[in-house]
Specification:
single chain, about 450 residues, mainly alpha, D-Maltodextrin-Binding Protein, domain 2, 2 domains, 4-stranded mixed beta sheet, 4 strands
Length: about 450
């Protein structure tokens, strides 16, 4: 009972000291406002985007070709207009004008009045030759869009010269209905649509960032708290009433409570904002907007976020406390915690690359790394959200994470027990190994 009472007392002191600071209150407010802004970002972008129209000019030797190019570009680059789904007050994404003076049109594009000028001429062999004049260069977005449109214009012109009518060409290139199914015949759950896929991917990406921030921010808090008490000699007084293990557990528990309070407010603000997003988008944009994130907000995803967030914090916080006990000055904290920072950053970067498609999340290397305890808090959430991770992989990663926490606390307690009494020293690897063997 004495041990639990000491742990609670130390943890309560950490909570009272940190939760009353101005930095905590201002930081919490800024984080909540930031999450709310991110949740409504699709609505904000949609509001400005609907009044932002790209202007493109077409200069063709033949009026018929110019008219055909205008119709093709507007139909391809304004899909909502073709479907009759425009909202009141909205503007088309692209407007096309037909110009006769190529030099004058190029000057407007150079001045920024036009996004680009598409010049169309008839080559000697009868085919159409296209030149796109734009400040975007060959790799710009408008260039890629106009290249697609030019292919369609050239195809329609070739068919016309072969005697194929417009109706026949439309029937020839009519899109097909492509059914999508799981490759595993035993899976009977429906295939996710685009909105659900985007929603879950974005949510998993955001939750991974939050877990990374929890570990880095509050891990450093634990280390700084140890160093502050060592520098003020308060540690010596506390150790007369509590054991080093109780002090370690109390600090991790207290900072964990502060982290929970702050991020509970952040998550509550984010969840409420996501639930309100469709209604706000309907009022502002006249539709639910693109990428409704609420479709990806599932109880299973929230549960995994909570588990990996709490377990990841406990794993790293114990090691941050041990690292903080090895130094006596705040200036040396960053160097002491650098190994944990590098490992967590590496796991975070790999997890982000895998969730955004830059790395194949199904590859054997990513699969193995996602169950490694120091990396799983950052990598498994994205794989589970996209349906790549199997249930047994998630269970295995959680089991290994729990086991690693027990081992990390044991190692950290031994280093911490001797490290908190070190003053004015910068122990190297040999000294750390000696403290690990001799710690009580």
């Amino acid at each position: 009972m004495t041990a639990l009472r000491n742990i609670r007392a130390i943890g309560r002191r950490e909570v009272e000291v940190r939760i009353r600071t101005r930095s905590f209150l201002v930081g919490t407010l800024l984080l909540v406002l930031g999450v709310i802004a991110i949740a409504f970002l699709p609505v904000i972008i949609g509001h400005f985007d609907r009044t932002d129209t790209t202007r493109v000019a077409v200069v063709a030797d033949e009026p018929a070709v110019g008219a055909q190019a205008k119709a093709t570009i507007e139909a391809l680059l304004n899909p909502s207009a073709g479907a009759g789904a425009t909202t009141p007050g909205s503007q088309p994404d692209v407007t096309v004008t037909i110009e006769s003076d190529l030099a004058a049109a190029r000057r407007q594009a150079a001045d920024g009045q036009l996004a680009g000028v598409l010049g169309i001429a008839r080559a000697a062999d009868g085919s159409l030759a296209f030149t796109y004049y734009s400040n975007d260069g060959a790799a710009g977005r408008s260039t890629a869009e106009l290249r697609l449109a030019a292919n369609s214009i050239a195809m329609a012109d070739r068919l016309g010269r072969l005697g194929v009518s417009g109706a026949q060409a439309a029937a020839l290139f009519a899109p097909v209905d492509l059914a999508v199914a799981w490759p595993d015949p035993t899976r009977t759950d429906p295939v996710r649509n685009v909105a659900a896929s985007v929603g879950q991917d974005m949510l998993a990406f955001g939750m991974t960032i939050l877990i990374f921030m929890i570990i880095i921010m509050y891990g450093n808090w634990v280390a700084m708290s140890v160093v502050e008490e060592k520098a003020s000699r308060v540690m010596e007084v506390i150790l007369n009433a509590a054991t080093p293990y109780q002090l370690l557990a109390g600090k991790v528990f207290g900072v964990g409570v502060v982290a929970f309070v702050q991020y509970a407010a952040v998550i509550a603000g984010g969840v409420v904002s996501l639930q309100l997003q469709p209604a706000v988008a309907s009022q502002v944009l006249g539709s639910t907007g693109a990428g409704d994130l609420t479709q990806g907000l599932t109880p299973a995803l929230l549960l995994l976020f909570g588990l990996y967030g709490v377990l990841g914090f406990l794993l790293y916080a114990a090691l941050y406390a041990a690292a903080g006990s090895l130094v006596s000055r705040q200036e040396d904290v960053n160097a002491a915690v650098m190994p944990m920072t590098l490992i967590s950053t590496a796991g975070y970067m790999v997890g982000v690359y895998a969730s955004t498609g830059l790395l194949d999340s199904r590859s054997p290397a990513i699969t193995v790394l996602s169950v490694v305890p120091f990396l799983s808090p950052f990598m498994m959430l994205g794989r589970a959200a996209t349906g790549v991770a199997q249930p047994w992989e998630v269970v295995l990663s959680l089991a290994l994470l729990v086991g690693s926490i027990a081992l990390a606390i044991w190692v950290a307690a031994r280093i911490y027990a001797a490290g908190v009494l070190l003053y004015g020293q910068r122990p190297g690897m040999r000294a750390v190994w000696r403290l690990l063997r001799e710690g009580m």
